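A reminder before we start the practical. When you read a complex entry, don't treat the lines as separate problems. The point of joint prediction is that each chain is placed relative to the others, so the output describes one connected object in space. Small molecules and nucleic acid strands, if listed, are placed in the same frame. In the example below there are two entries. Take a minute to note the order of the lines before looking further.
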Amino acid sequence: MAVRLKDLTTKDTPMTRGHRMCPGCGAPTAVRQGLLAVDKPVVITCATGCLEVSTTIYPYNAWNVPFLHCAFENAGANISGIEAAYVALKKKGKINKDIKFVAFGGDGGTYDIGLQALSGAAERGHDFTYICYNNQAYMNTGAQRSSATPTGASATTAPAGKKIPGKVQRAKDLTDIMAAHHIPYVAQTTLHNPQDVIEKVKKAIETPGPSFVNILVPCVLFWRIDPAIQRDICKLAADTRIWPIYEVIDGQWKLSYKPKSFVPVEEFLKPQGRFRHLFKGDAWKHVVEQLQQEVEEKWAYVLERCKETWEPK
Amino acid sequence: MARRDITSGNWAAAEAMRQINPDVVAAYPITPSTDIPMKFSEFVADGLVDTNLVTVESEHSAISACLAASISGARVMTASSANGVALMHEIFPIAAAYRAPIVFALVNRSIGAPINIHCDHSDSMAERDMGWIHLYCEDAQEVYDSMIMSVRIAEHKDVLLPVFVCQDGFITSHCFEPIEFLEDEEVKNFIGERDPMFPLLDVDNPVAYGSLALTDYYFEIKRQQIEAMKNVRKVYEEISEEFYKLTGRKYPIVEAYKTEDAEYVAVIMSSATGAVKEAVDKLRAEGHKVGCLRVRMFRPFPWKDIAEILTGKKGIAVLDRAASIGAGAPLFTEVKGALYDSGTIVPTNSYVYGLGGRDFFLHDAEKAFTDLINGDFSPEERYLGLRE
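Here is the predicted structure of the whole assembly.
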């Protein structure tokens, strides 16, 4: 499964340049890196969201592979329908190619409104890969909170105010929920290391049956970061362990990245405008402590599942 | 050789689906349409069809999977009712806009509240502006025949639109009646193979469905849909004529029963037509010149046919199995509009009947005619079979 980056430098990707995503946005990086090493023809569907609206503004189209967008909550059902048609038409000899099916959704379209359709598709066992480009809020409509938004982040429907420090609830653990579907491949990663994204998505797509990859990607506009730090902020997400990097292959958990040293969660929060209020005075110090606590709990859980230990320098 | 049997509207629909042998069926259970996917699942289990049956987790996913499979190039069918139809609502206009020729067995049931499993047309009437073709069937035979004809109509290159084949919940869907089936081979030959335009699965010629089209293109795309709907009539007439030659069963867009010399006409849809026709015969025997006009195709609305038949009449009763609360009932307003366009003014009463499955009797039909005969006209909506 190892991929040589050198071999990929001249390769065409299913999504072209010239789309209208923001500079520094992590979603197109995830798509282009992810699909880079896939050799079989792919058909793409996309939940309503930034990626969809910014790549298919009629009469232009940034996809040079078949593409379907239907609605917000049904990417899981759409990919099921495409795959079902493929299986039926292949059986009848009307199609003879091997084709792979990939759905993309943001966290709103995946964690929240699209969860049922995704769960149904996974349970039914269609051969597809669902990739969540998770930027932790409803960015296409202007940074409203989602169930993926982390505690303490200021979102436009959970703004940091005088009394409330942004989102108070904990983020849903969707990767774990998808692992609980006992599908052949589930993974979680971020844009800290292109090789990791490339290999995980390739593995997901090449694995027969349903697979799910949750990729944490920055939204420069609403994380309020410098577009130049896309990779740095993702590296901090991995190093602070607020976003553990792992995969679950046929039920076996495998840790993909072990930070060398302990990096406090503040390091991930501080460069981001959406967490700025947490560091103005001491009023919300306990929120940062709570987040650190959540990180430790989740990390311990992942280590246990992966049968790993961690001894930071 | 035609095969005769006793069956229900639902099973007739399922039998048509077995013979059509669609590539994909994605369906979700809801009363009273559940029978269709249940029966069809038996065909799948027994290997009688090649269909990939996708047992989705909601009606929303059913129609989403159908849409995706249809634009992928597959021949696709499904069934639903009431709340299921309402849950699918978001996807209906998208399916029509993507020109996905889905054939949909819609078993009419009230959408509530109060929750009620019985027939009225509130579910399909709520979808009348979604860009689908709407056919309303009087009996199980017509359901069976319409399912087969609809495959051709939906997939015709001048049309490429999804079709609702509506039947009355329980009244038609669960009552057993004699049916004449075609032979499997006859159905196969009649429908032919689907030859999809721009299928998503043609990876060598990639296409995008579902682009964002704003103020600069949206309007033109909608106009194309409007034009496609205008083509339905001609295509329907060709295909129903071909079907008539094969089966001897004729399905005009509107069915005129003893209307030619009639002074008074009742306009109705679906299964209640039988009671109205019976009232026509009874009142004619008593010397009254009455007739019945059944509207089979509700979208595209056959306003010209209706105006032609109703022009010059002394009075009209339009009977709706759905209310449009706060406005005129759906069929009534359409019929009145058709008459206005034809430049004729005929006194017209609006009757709402049968909501939530309330029985519609011969005396209800007679009551509507009696009002017309007695010159009892008023603009207020009237109700048949209602306790007040």
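Discuss with your neighbour: The interface with chain A takes residues 23-24, 26, 50-52, 54-58, 60-62, 64-74, 76, 90-91, 94, 200-203, 206-214, 217 of chain B (CB under 8 Å). What might explain this?
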